[in-house]
Amino acid sequence: MISPTVLLSLLLIISSIIPMGLVGEGSSRAFDGTIASGEYSYHATFSDGQFELHWEVEGEEVRFGMVGRTTGYVAIGFEPVMLMEGADMVIGWVNGSGEAMVYDLFCTGSFGPIHLDIDLGGTDDLLGFGASSGDGHVTVEFGRALVTGDAYDHDIPSVGRLKVIWATGSVFDPAVMPDQGGMGSVEMDKGGSSEDRWSLYFYTVAMGIGSGSLLISMAIVRTKNRDGVRGWHIKLGWTGTAFTALGTASVTVPSVYGGHTPLVLGIGLISVSLLMLGAYMGRRSIRKDAAQGIRRAHTIVSMCALMATVVGLVVGILSLL
C-alpha cells in the first residue's frame, strides 16, 4: 500500500511536469494560454502587430495561438463567404476571475449575428483552449481537428491558403463593433499573411476615375459652346459621382473595422456629400429663372468636390505604398 507521503510526492512531481491549461481529448499538448519562442512553426502578423496568428498542424489536428493588442477579447474567423457571413469563428478572452473563456461560433450574416455552434444544432469542436492577459495583450490558444464534420465548421487545409478575418475589442458584445479588425489570408504551409487590400485598390482607382470625370465635366462647360456640351457636362458629373460613391462604399466596412485609416472613409464621404449637393444645385442652376448666386454656389461646391476626390486619390495612393 502506497503511503500518503509517497502519493503526495508523486502528485507534486506530475503537477510540475504537466503545464496548467485545458487539454482536449485528442490533443497531444496542453493549452496554457502563453506562446513560447519556437512553440509554433508558422505565424502571421496583421495591421502592424495589432493581431498575430500562430499555428501548428499535428497530424489530423491543428493548434492556433492568437495574440491581440488589447485588454479585452481576440477573435478569428475562417473562410467567410461575404464580409463576416459564413465565418467559422473562435473568440476568447480572460474573465475577471482569470478564467479562459473561449467559444466555437458561426456567423450567419455579413455584419452578424454570431451564434454558438451548439445553438445552431452543431457541435463544440474545440479540443482544448487556454488564455492569458497582460502587458496590454491577450493571448488565446485553441486546438481543433482539421476536418470536424460539423456543418458550422470549415475544413482547415494543412497546405495552401486559408482566408481569415480577425478582430480585437474591449468587451465582447455581438451588438457592438470591435475596436480593430481586418481581412486577409495565411499560407498554412509557409507562414506569413497577405492583408485584403482589394478594397483600397478599388477605392483608389474609383477616386481616380471620379476625379478625372469631374475635371473634364467642369472643363468642357467653360467652353464657348456651353449649351452644346451641357449634356456631356451632366453625364460626366454623374459618372464622377457614381465612381466616387462606389469607391467609398468599398472601404466602408474595412474602415469601420479598423482595416483602413478612417481618413480614407472620411474623405470619400465628404466627396460624395459635396457631389450630391453640387448635383442638386446644378439642377436648380439650369433653370431660366435661376439666380446668379445659385450658379456661383454650384461652381464653388463642384470645385470643392473635385478637390476632395483628388485628395482621396492621393490618400489612396499613399495608403498603398
Q: Would you write up a description of this structure?
A:
It is a single chain. The chain contains five helices and twelve strands. The termini are far apart. The chain has helices at 4-17, 198-220, 226-256, 262-285, 292-320, and strands at 42-46, 51-58, 61-68, 73-78, 88-94, 100-107, 114-116, 128-134, 137-145, 161-169, 180-187, 193-195. The chain is 38% helix and 25% strand. It has a seven-stranded antiparallel beta sheet, with no helix packed on it. Strands 1-2-3-9-8 form a five-stranded antiparallel beta sheet, with no helix packed on it. It is of the alpha+beta class. The model is unreliable at 1-28 (pLDDT under 50). It has two domains: 20-195, Immunoglobulin-like; 198-320, Up-down Bundle (Four Helix Bundle (Hemerythrin (Met), subunit A)).
Key features?
321 residues, Immunoglobulin-like, Four Helix Bundle (Hemerythrin (Met), subunit A), 2 domains, seven-stranded antiparallel sheet, five-stranded antiparallel sheet, 5 helices, 12 strands, 25% strand
Concise description?
With 321 residues, the chain is an alpha+beta fold. Helices cover 38% and strands 25% of the residues. The chain has helices at residues 4-17, 198-220, 226-256, 262-285, 292-320; strands at 42-46, 51-58, 61-68, 73-78, 88-94, 100-107, 114-116, 128-134, 137-145, 161-169, 180-187, 193-195.
